[in-house]
Amino acid sequence: MKSRWTILCIAFLLSLNSFAQCAMCRAVLESEEGQSAAEGVNNGIVYLMAIPYILIGGIGVIIYYKFFRAEKSK
Length: 74
Fold this sequence. Notes:
Low-confidence stretches: none
Radius of gyration: 19 Å
Strand content: under 5%
Number of helices: 3
Structural class: mainly alpha
Oligomer: single chain
């Protein structure tokens, strides 16, 4: 069970460096010279995308542990 959590954590950490933009945002931000705004938009998109998955995953873990702890106590 520990190895599964380790693999899951490593996979999550490796996937954090992604570049996600819509076509319009990409076209506007590519014309900028410093590219600092483009990096900020990319990071914002990744954060906005990750938060719901983290919340749903956390709720799933809580339900999982409550379900199996209730079974063990019987």
